[in-house]
Amino acid sequence: MRGSEVKPFASVHINSVPEIEGIYVIYDETAEDLPVYVGRSNNIRNRLRELFIGCGSKTIDLLTGQGHDLWFSFGYSNNPYSTEAAELARLSPAGNKKRVIKYLEEVQG
Are the C-beta atoms of residues 3 and 40 closer than 8 Å to each other? Predict the structure, then answer.
């Protein structure tokens, strides 16, 4: 993904994100910068705000609740669906979902 620098997952940084369509990736610094969430949105700033306040992702809620240090990056795309699919394929041949589930099992276990 060609996009922004990686920033702490905090409201001050989320508020500086432009209201653009594209994809975003959330990383877990606590787990050696593992990408734990990849998403697409027509308005990245609003979507990151939703995730920050606990709406829409059990994964993010679980990690923040356990004190994990999360970071994010984002990138513009005029076709977020295909860009998200390409990023998921790049991160893991089976897609990021299986990787996230395995990681969460390790965190919980």
Answer: no
Name beta bridge partners: 70: 28
Asked if the model's pLDDT at residue 62 lies above 80, the reply is: yes
Terminal alpha carbon distance of the chain? 31
Alpha helices in 2-79 (DSSP H): 11-14, 44-52, 58-65
Q: Which CATH architecture has domain 7-108?
A: 3-Layer(aba) Sandwich (3.40)
Contacts of 15 (CB under 8 A, 6+ apart): 45
Work out the average pLDDT over 2-31. Answer: 87
HSE at residue 61, side-chain half, CA atoms within 13 A, is 7
**Residue 71 exposure: Cα atoms within 13 Å on the Cβ side:** 15
